[in-house]
Amino acid sequence: MLSQEKLLQAIDIEMRICRDAHPEDEPDKTHQILQIAALICHQGWAENAGNDQTELEQVVRSLETNEVVRGHQGWRELATT
Q1: What does the DSSP assignment read for 2-40?
Q2: d(CA 53, CA 24)
Q3: Which of 12, 15, 23, 78 fits 28 for a cystine, CB–CB 3.0-4.6 Å?
Q4: Residues 6 or more apart whose Cβ sits within 8 Å of residue 22
Q5: CB-count exposure of residue 77 (10 Å: 0-12, 13-18, 19+)
Q6: What is the C-alpha to C-alpha distance for residues 57 and 34, in angstroms, rounded to an integer?
Q7: Cα–Cα distance measured from residue 72 to residue 74, given in angstroms and rounded to the nearest whole number
Q8: Cβ within 8 Å of residue 4, ≥6 positions away
Q9: What is the Cα–Cα distance from 63 to 11, expressed in whole angstroms?
């Protein structure tokens, strides 16, 4: 079962990691901006999902397949109770 609280915590941790990074070149800075934007979008989606398992599943699948944030491993594991 997916937990909204755990998913939001995982997204928050990843956002802090992204914000704390200090990319040196423009492509990395652009990628950082895109990562943060994707995480903010998914955070809002997860907040609106509440405990609806179907919606939470869609959020997790989107995180797993999103080209910008899928490199962050373990979305499903981090969000599962």
Answers
A1: B-HHHHHHHHHHHHHHHHH----SHHHHHHHHHHHHHHH
A2: 40
A3: 23
A4: none
A5: exposed
A6: 22
A7: 7
A8: 46, 47, 49, 50, 51, 56
A9: 10
**Residue with the two structure tokens 């928050």:** 12
| Phi then psi dihedrals of residue 41, to 5 deg | -60, -45
What size, in residues, is the chain?
81
Whole-number pLDDT of residue 3: 97
- Alpha-carbon span 1 to 54, nearest angstrom: 10
Type of residue at 23? P
Q: At what angle do helices 53-65 and 4-20 cross, to 10 degrees?
A: 30
